[in-house]
Amino acid sequence: MPERGGTILVVDDDAGLRRVIQHNLEEAGYNVMLAEDGETGFRLFQQTHPRLVLTDVRMGGLGGLELLTRIKAYSPDALVVVVTAFGSLEEAVKAIRLGAYDYLGKPFSREQLVLAVSKALAFQGLTRENRKLKAALSSRKHRVLLGDSPQMQAVHNLIRRMATAEAPVLILGESGTGKELVARQLHRQGARRKGPFVVVNCAAIPEKLLESELFGHLRGAFPGAARNHRGKFDQADGGTLFLDEVGELPAELQSKLLHVLRENEITPVGGKAHRINVRVISATNRNLETEISCGRFCRNLYSRLAVLPLSLPPLRDREEDIPLLAQHFLDRYSGDRNLSLSREALSALQCYPWPGNVRELENLMERLAILARADLVERDELPLKILTCGMSGARRVVHLPPDGYSLEEIEKQAILQALALCSWNRTRAAEFLRISSPLLTSRIEKYDLVPEQREAAGISLESS
C-alpha cells in the first residue's frame, strides 16, 4: 500500500507528461504538486518540503541535475527520483552519484512509475525507523548506573552476582535513586537478556484495571472487554517483569501475585490458568516491613519478592559521585556546547541533600544546559535552594568534641540512640533513621550492639 502522507513534487517542462504523471499518481492515492521548470520546482521544494521530488533531467533553464544538486545542498536527506531519456544511462549514473535515490527511464508505464515512487517512499520510511532506533539505542546506552563511590561499587558487585540467578530481586531505595536502571542492568547481564523486559508501574494503573493489566483478560470477561488482552506477565514470558512501586499493590492483587510466584502460573480474567516463565524484579520506596506491621502488605509476598534484596543509597550519601553524574547529564543535554561546572558550583551541589536524588540532579543539569550563560557554569547560576543550603538556621544534630572523633563511632552512637528511643524495635528505629531494616540489621551486627550498651562519652547526639 502506498504511503499517502505528504506530497510528491513533479518537475517537468512538458505539460502533457506532467498531467499524465499527476493523473497516475493521484489514482494510486498520492498527493501531487506540479512545477513547470527547475527554478519553480526548487522554490516550491523550499516552501512545501515534499516527501519526494520526481524531476526530468533535460529541461530548459535549470536542468534536473542542477535542481538535484540544489535540493541535496539545501536538504541532504531529500528523496529525489530523476526521469531520463531513453538510453541515457550516463545521465542516470551521474544522478545517482549526485544523490538521487533512483531513476526512471522514458518511456515508462503507469506500473513502473507507481513502483518507483512506492519503493522510494518505503526506503524513506525505513530510514526514519532506523534513525529512531539508533536514537533510542543511543539514549539507552547513555542511561547507565553511574558512580565510583564505595556504596555504588558494592551495588555493581551485587548486580553482577544477582544477574545470573533466577530468584526474585527486590530493589529498595528512595524515589529518583535509579531503581529501574538497576532492574534493566540485572536483565541485560542475566541469562534472559534476549527475552523481553516489561515494566509495570503499580502506582500508575487504576486499581480496577490492575488485574487485567498484569494477567490479561478474555473478550467479554467484563463490560467493555471487547477483545482479548495479553497481560504483562504473558508479554514478559521468557524474560523479565519489573514491578515498580510494588508496595502500592492492593491486598487482593498481593495474594494473586503471591500465587503466581509460588506456582509460576497466571489466570487471565475470564480465562483458565496457564504456566509462565518470567523472572520478577520489583522495587519500592516504601519500608515494606513497616507496611507489614501496619497490615498493609503481605508478609509471605514480601518473603517471595525479597529473596535477593538490593538497597540503593540516596545521592546525599554518595556526594563524591555528584561531579561525575552532573557532568554526565550536562553532556547529555548540552548538544554541541562543551559545558562544565566551576569548582564553586560543584561544591554547592555536593552540600545540597538532594531529596529528589539522581532524578533531581538530572533535571537541574538539563535546565542549566539550556540556560547556561557560558561554557563554564558558575555557582550563582544554581537555584537559590541550593545556594542557601547549609547556611544559618539549620539545626545542628551532632556536637563533636574539639579533639576529633571517629566517624564509625558517630554512626554507632546514632544507631544506639535510635534503638533506645524506639525501645529496640528495629523496624521503628530503621524508619527513624530513614534507612532500610536490612541495612540497620547489618549495622547492628557490624558493631555487635546489644540493649545493655549505653551512649559513649565524648559526643552528644540531640534528639529534639
Question: Topology of this protein?
Answer:
Elements: E1 8-11, H1 15-27, E2 32-35, H2 38-48, E3 52-56, H3 64-74, E4 80-84, H4 89-98, E5 102-105, H5 110-142, H6 150-163, E6 169-172, H7 179-188, E7 197-201, H8 207-215, H9 232-235, E8 240-244, H10 251-263, E9 265-266, E10 274-275, E11 279-284, H11 288-293, H12 299-305, E12 308-311, H13 322-333, E13 340-341, H14 343-351, H15 357-371, E14 376-377, H16 384-387, E15 398-399, H17 407-421, H18 426-433, H19 437-447, E16 460-461
Parallel strand pairs: 1-2, 1-3, 3-4, 4-5, 6-11, 6-12, 7-8, 8-11, 13-14
Antiparallel strand pairs: 9-10, 15-16
Tell me about this structure.
46% of the residues lie in helices and 12% in strands. The protein is α/β, with parallel strands linked by helices and 464 residues long. The chain has four domains: 8-137, Rossmann fold, CATH 3.40.50.2300; 150-311, P-loop containing nucleotide triphosphate hydrolases (Rossmann fold), CATH 3.40.50; 315-387, Orthogonal Bundle (Helicase, Ruva Protein, domain 3), CATH 1.10.8; 398-461, Homeodomain-like (Arc Repressor Mutant, subunit A, Orthogonal Bundle), CATH 1.10.10.60. A five-stranded parallel beta sheet has the order 2-1-3-4-5, sandwiched between helices. Strands 7-8-11-6-12 form a five-stranded parallel beta sheet. Strand 9 (265-266) and strand 10 (274-275) form a beta hairpin. Helix 17 crosses helix 18 (426-433) and helix 18 (426-433) packs across helix 19. The longest helix has 33 residues, at 110-142. This is DNA-binding response regulator. It comes from Geothermobacter hydrogeniphilus. Residues 7-121 form the Response regulatory domain.
